[in-house]
Amino acid sequence: MPPRHQLPPYAELHCLSNFSFLKGASHPEELVARAQQLRYGALAITDECSLAGVVRAHNEAKERNFHLIIGSEMRLHLPDTGQPHARLVLLAQTRRGYGNLSHWITVARNRASKGSYLAHPGDVEGKVPNAPTLTGLPECLALLVPQASQPYEEVLAHALWLKTWFQERAVIAIELHNGPGDEALLDVVQRVAKATTLPIAAAGGVLMHVRSRKPLQDVLSATRLSRPVAQCGWQLEPNAEAHLRSRARLGTLYRAEWLEQTVALAAQCSFSLSELKYEYPQEIVPPGETPTSHLRKLTYAGVTKRFKEGLPDKVRDQIEHELALIRQLDYERYFLTVADIVHWAREQKILCQGRGSAANSAVCYCLGVTEIDPGRATLLFERFISAERNEPPDIDIDFEHQRREEVIQYIYAKYGRHRAALTAVVICYRPRSALRDVGRALGIDLQRIEAVAKSMQWWDGSVGEERLRETGFDPEAPLVRLWMELTHQLIGFPRHLSQHPGGFVIARDQLSHLVPVENAAMEGRSVIQWEKDDLESLGLMKVDILALGMLSALRRSIEFVGHKLGRPFELQDVPDKDEPTYDMICAADTVGVFQIESRAQMSMLPRLKPRVYYDLVVQVAIVRPGPILG
Questions:
Q1: Which of 218-227, 362-371, 609-618 shows the highest mean pLDDT?
Q2: Regarding beta strands 170-174 and 200-202, do their DSSP bridges make them parallel or antiparallel, or are they unpaired?
Q3: In 416-464, which ranges are continuous DSSP H helix?
Q4: In sequence order, what are the residues at sequence separation of 6 or more whose Cβ sits closer than 8 angstroms to the Cβ of residue 150?
Q5: Residue 278: pLDDT band by 50, 70, 90 thresholds?
Q6: In the chain, where does the domain assigned CATH 3.20.20.140 lie?
Q7: pTM for the full model?
Q8: Three-class DSSP category at 409
Q9: SS3 of 174, please?
Q10: SS3 527
Q11: Mean confidence (pLDDT) of the chain
Q12: CATH entry 3.30.1900.20 includes domain 291-425+497-549
């Protein structure tokens, strides 16, 4: 026990971020920063059946050299009756434990529709087919979190069940929030711990990093319950104690040994997301070949098709330079995976085109992924791949919009749904949606909310006083000021997960041991819980399978030209300098021509008078809005 003048040690083992949608009231980064400020020994981010926010927390913890624990809260239900069972917090101790936890989240999510989950006690009892690693959830700690309303017999039954399946990794957590049920909960937990010999650990059941977020947490709860705050009653948190509290405050609530137990448990959780390593599919390399030899073979097979009049020395040197760097960075399987998808699409007569920085690659050109001839253009390969940047390559491929689904289903068929899934997109609150949800939660008239919301643009950071007066509100009224303050806090909060237009993650083995996978809203699709920025920060690969309507028009045009010529005609057969085409471009006769069909582009064309391809590059760059306005 520490001396009286010392603050007790503590690690928070139960904390929900705002990725527990409409529950948590703080960003993962805010929670990590606050935990370090309070000198906690560690912090566990344990969003409900989710790992969606852990990468952001990991990045913040890495910058601060702070101990982050990866975990998740799971509310179990009996499969037959749907009755609630135990409420658990699972903490990953090792890489294997993390994989098991991620897989359980996947199983629970795939039982239910998008946005919900069903976790059963039988999941850890060996009752999930083809999931032996879920039995007892090896290398994960399990904390039982009783609630004040639960009777002793029920908590005892849950604790005995937990001890049976988790053995020495089972713990009872006690969460005291200075509420009316604290005394009864304290009595039940101590009696159950004595009857089962399970250790007790303090926990916070944290929903926000500071107590001042309580009004926002009430708004989130009201939005989840679809009623105003004034009508939510006991369903709201009774006070603001579910925040990261000072260790001095915790020392007055919990026994010293319960606080010390949190630090001992945290020491058993050594896993970090930095341990995750992406492994490419193996079947893309034929028997007897290596990734290096096969990529070289396919590249030079493409050379014979692309350079029928002989390979220029400049291009050969470029290819060799690229192959050497690709081998050095171990990216061969990534290129082979992309080449396989493109090859299949071309076999099915689906027009496709790589774009973005991949167009700087001679290897991509030879593989048929891109169409920029390195013999005609000066390539900047290091803009695409660089050893110094240490960033994974990102190849975007556009397919005909009417046939992209065929490509997606090919990927699922080739690799299986257990190995391939789409990347997520985090849908966040913008000014209008935040105004609406906060206004409804505060009980403001819906028509008046709409009047203010419709006057907002997505780039507006706040509502000006003049705009409020125009819609009949007094900016100084306490309710209006609260509305504006909470709206400002809510902007940028994650609202739900959606699916990326086409970013695919393909794994060598079970994808769910790398990241949880859940059902998408669209039938036949599955989505991981991380977005593209999460993948990039961990160095994990994705392939973008995108749709472009113009490619459908191009395919029909190419078929028409081939029919008129009486022979096969490909995109690469389009002449580099077709003067009649440039005459039409200079005359702004470009309606329906991708990239130069807007009014702004058409007004610029007669003045710039492009006569070579690079002129068009300059033209588009001058007119096209940049990332701030585009």
A1: 218-227
A2: parallel
A3: 431-441, 446-453
A4: 188
A5: confident
A6: 28-209+244-275
A7: 0.90
A8: helix
A9: strand
A10: strand
A11: 91
A12: yes
Give the DSSP H/E element, type plus range, for residue 69.
Answer: strand 68-77
Collect all residues with Cβ–Cβ distance below 8 Å to 593 and sequence separation of at least 6. 585
Q: Classify each residue of 28-62 as buried b or exposed e, where b means 16 or more C-beta atoms within 10 Å of its C-beta.
A: bbbbbbbbbebebbbbbbbbbbbbbbbbbbbbbbe
Comparing 82-86, 168-172, 469-473, which segment has the lowest mean pLDDT? 469-473
Strand duo 526-531 + 517-519: pairing? antiparallel
Domain 28-209+244-275, classified CATH 1.10.10.10, yes or no: no
Integer CA distances (angstroms), 295 to 284, 334, 335, 369, in order: 10, 10, 8, 13
**pLDDT at residue 39 greater than cutoff 80:** yes
Please compute Rg for the chain using Cα positions: 29
pLDDT digits (tens, 9 = 90+) for 94-133: 999 999 999 999 999 999 988 899 999 999 998 888 788 7
Residues 6+ apart with CB under 8 A from 509: 279, 419
3-state secondary structure 375-389: CCCCCCHHHHCCCCC
In the chain, which residues fall in CATH 3.30.1900.20? 291-425+497-549
Q: Confirm if 89 and 98 have CB atoms less than 8 A apart.
A: no
Residue 338, both tokens: 């992309």
DSSP state of 167: G
